[in-house]
């Protein structure tokens, strides 16, 4: 059946699946992209560091429940079909995102604000847990044999495009509004706008047909009556679930979140880079790097999935420390020569010091007046020279390449490990444990490690947060090298 699927039909499938997945990732990412702003709205403002860590923990909570979403919606997908299942996940995700934009601040309703945000984040996580497996399975089951890597790699681009579009919407909102307006209410706009995109995606997905492989299995009566039991109660299949997790998905997860989320948090909180500048650097690198998902997906059809993914992990764990050291040094004002200094007196006994450096870097520091405290720094913002901005973009781009290597082939890799009747359930769990648990916890864990190292006055505190992704990627590389076969497991691909 799939051999007769024409290119026009596959592009319709890609378009319908990708549009919804892109919007769901957009919904999920705007929370992470606005985490610094959100920390001041939904959490107590008397301890900014604790508030930011609490926001990251709430962000991570959405990832922690993704495996439960994978089990619940994966089971539905294997019982009633791929199409209807990820229609539900789309509406659940969109509704939760819209409501986050409507929640009153901590100042208005107290601890009810972070509680409501947490509940909605959990709903987002459950929805996302069912989304990816459905979209990837749906596309793979339409793709001709021998081309699954290429066609499913288009789905892989949607997560990056989702982040990219979220950054564009945030930057446009900031550009249109004043800084005071954005801080007061403008940050809600990206959340509220998502409901319009969800509606458009719903209309597109409503007209989709069921995947040919699942439709055939349902017609022949060979669908699973208990997908959970057959996926995880069967020792033979469970072995592949565990191998998919520890030999591929968890390493892919930490590489993905290091390059796209930790790098953004690192530029803003460790390097103190101007927020808009950091978003522009990451957005540019993402835009340039996204076509490589397609390249490595296509290449995996030719040479196999295994070594492309594992090479991406190996390059990442070997080069993360020198990459992030180079990034830090580009904005490290302690090593730069001062050109001029200007200090202004602000309200509330605060001082604003603007420092210009000879290499074009500009630093703005707000501190307490020495008459009230020991000139304690409250906030520091660094704007680097255009040449350093290009260098930073290149360093982020290298990390995006690692992401495309590990993420481009993984949908086809996971689909080919499991038979049709339990594919949605079996592939969704290892993917979302790897990404939701190992990957989703990365920003919070790495920020915690960096903060502790800074308190302990470690001279290389800015590299401490990298130990987590390096160790996880190393373990995954070893397991994957030893136990994963480079060719699809056709015997298990029923």
TrEMBL record:
<feature type="transmembrane region" description="Helical">
    <location>
        <begin position="151"/>
        <end position="173"/>
    </location>
</feature>
<feature type="domain" description="Major facilitator superfamily (MFS) profile">
    <location>
        <begin position="13"/>
        <end position="492"/>
    </location>
</feature>
<feature type="transmembrane region" description="Helical">
    <location>
        <begin position="185"/>
        <end position="204"/>
    </location>
</feature>
<feature type="transmembrane region" description="Helical">
    <location>
        <begin position="307"/>
        <end position="324"/>
    </location>
</feature>
<dbReference type="InterPro" id="IPR036259">
    <property type="entry name" value="MFS_trans_sf"/>
</dbReference>
<dbReference type="InterPro" id="IPR005828">
    <property type="entry name" value="MFS_sugar_transport-like"/>
</dbReference>
<feature type="transmembrane region" description="Helical">
    <location>
        <begin position="394"/>
        <end position="417"/>
    </location>
</feature>
<dbReference type="InterPro" id="IPR020846">
    <property type="entry name" value="MFS_dom"/>
</dbReference>
<feature type="transmembrane region" description="Helical">
    <location>
        <begin position="240"/>
        <end position="260"/>
    </location>
</feature>
<feature type="transmembrane region" description="Helical">
    <location>
        <begin position="280"/>
        <end position="300"/>
    </location>
</feature>
<dbReference type="InterPro" id="IPR005829">
    <property type="entry name" value="Sugar_transporter_CS"/>
</dbReference>
<protein>
    <submittedName>
        <fullName>MFS transporter</fullName>
    </submittedName>
</protein>
<feature type="transmembrane region" description="Helical">
    <location>
        <begin position="85"/>
        <end position="106"/>
    </location>
</feature>
<keyword id="KW-1133">Transmembrane helix</keyword>
<keyword id="KW-0472">Membrane</keyword>
<keyword id="KW-0813">Transport</keyword>
<feature type="transmembrane region" description="Helical">
    <location>
        <begin position="50"/>
        <end position="73"/>
    </location>
</feature>
<feature type="transmembrane region" description="Helical">
    <location>
        <begin position="429"/>
        <end position="449"/>
    </location>
</feature>
<keyword id="KW-1003">Cell membrane</keyword>
<feature type="transmembrane region" description="Helical">
    <location>
        <begin position="112"/>
        <end position="130"/>
    </location>
</feature>
<dbReference type="Pfam" id="PF00083">
    <property type="entry name" value="Sugar_tr"/>
</dbReference>
<feature type="transmembrane region" description="Helical">
    <location>
        <begin position="461"/>
        <end position="484"/>
    </location>
</feature>
<keyword id="KW-0812">Transmembrane</keyword>
């Amino acid at each position: 059946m799939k051999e007769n699927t024409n290119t026009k039909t596959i592009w319709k499938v890609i378009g319908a699946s990708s549009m919804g997945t892109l919007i769901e990732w957009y919904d999920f990412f705007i929370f992470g992209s606005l985490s610094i702003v959100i920390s001041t709205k939904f959490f107590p403002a008397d301890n900014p560091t604790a508030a930011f860590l609490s926001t990251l923990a709430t962000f991570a909570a959405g990832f922690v429940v993704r495996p439960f979403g994978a089990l619940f919606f994966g089971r539905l997908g294997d019982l009633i079909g791929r199409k209807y299942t990820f229609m539900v996940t789309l509406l659940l995700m969109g509704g939760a995102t819209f409501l986050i934009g409507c929640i009153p601040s901590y100042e208005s309703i107290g601890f009810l604000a972070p509680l409501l945000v947490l509940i909605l984040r959990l709903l987002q996580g459950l929805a996302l847990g069912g989304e990816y497996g459905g979209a990837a399975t749906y596309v793979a089951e339409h793709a001709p044999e021998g081309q699954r890597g290429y066609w499913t790699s288009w789905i892989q681009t949607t997560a990056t495009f989702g982040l990219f579009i979220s950054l564009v919407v945030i930057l446009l909102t900031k550009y249109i509004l004043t800084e005071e307006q954005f801080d007061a209410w403008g940050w809600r706009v990206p959340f509220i706008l998502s409901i319009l995109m969800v509606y458009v995606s719903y209309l597109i997905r409503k007209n989709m047909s069921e995947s040919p492989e699942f439709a055939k299995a349902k017609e022949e009566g060979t669908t699973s009556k208990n997908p959970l039991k057959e996926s995880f109660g069967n020792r033979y299949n469970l072995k592949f679930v565990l191998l998919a997790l520890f030999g591929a998905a968890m390493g892919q997860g930490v590489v993905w979140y290091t390059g796209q989320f930790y790098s953004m948090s690192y530029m803003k909180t460790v390097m103190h880079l101007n927020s808009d500048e950091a978003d522009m650097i990451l957005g540019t690198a993402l835009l340039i790097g996204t076509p490589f998902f397609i390249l490595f997906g296509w290449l995996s059809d030719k040479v196999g999935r295994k070594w492309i993914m594992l090479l991406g992990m190996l390059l990442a764990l070997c080069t993360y420390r020198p990459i992030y050291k180079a990034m830090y040094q580009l904005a490290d004002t302690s090593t730069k020569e001062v050109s001029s200094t200007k200090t202004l007196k602000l309200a509330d006994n605060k001082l604003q010091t603007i420092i210009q450096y000879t290499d074009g870097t500009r630093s703005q520091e707000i501190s307490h007046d020495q008459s009230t405290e020991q000139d304690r720094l409250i906030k520091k913002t660094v704007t680097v020279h255009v040449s350093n901005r290009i260098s930073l973009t290149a360093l982020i781009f290298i990390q995006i390449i690692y992401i495309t290597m590990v993420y481009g082939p993984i949908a086809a890799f996971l689909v080919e490990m499991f038979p049709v009747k339990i594919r949605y359930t079996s592939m969704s769990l290892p993917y979302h444990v790897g990404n939701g648990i190992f990957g989703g916890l990365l920003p919070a864990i790495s920020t915690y490690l960096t903060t502790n190292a800074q308190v302990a006055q470690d001279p290389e505190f800015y590299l401490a947060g990298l130990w987590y992704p390096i160790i996880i990627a190393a373990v995954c590389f070893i397991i994957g090298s030893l136990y994963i076969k480079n060719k699809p497991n056709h015997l298990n691909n029923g």
